[in-house]
Amino acid sequence: MKAITIHQPWATLIAIGAKRFETRSWSTKYRGALAIHAAKKIDREACEREPIKSVLAKYGYTVDNLPTGAVVATAELNECFLVKHDVIGGVVLLESDKRNTHFNTLDNEYYFGEYSSGRYAWKLTDIEQIDE
């Protein structure tokens, strides 16, 4: 199984199903099973920002109890979208070889990634959190 290392709190946001897209500066042709590995690094400032803080708290997490250095979930990497525009009318536009999609900038998803034009949004499905 392939794995991707993601800093906290974003790895846990994926594990609890709150983050469905992992944004990267590069595309991937890989599709299939993916282990979500939480890096040892925690972005403490991000953990205190909303809506991240509230979403983590809903599941009992704080900056002090996020798992690090471990696989926290598995997922299927389903599709890779190119971010076409930063924001147009409050909507982020995503484009892939198969289809286009979008989401509203008021959605938490927008705050859980880096959606600048030219970046890539890796769509994750069938996310399963691994018990500690």
From TrEMBL:
Alphabetical list of Pfam families matching this protein: ASCH
ASCH domain location: 4-67
Stored CDD domains: ASCH_ASC-1_like
InterPro entries referenced in this protein's UniProt entry, alphabetically: ASCH_domain, PUA-like_sf
Protein name per UniProt: ASCH domain-containing protein
Species this protein is from: Paenibacillus yanchengensis
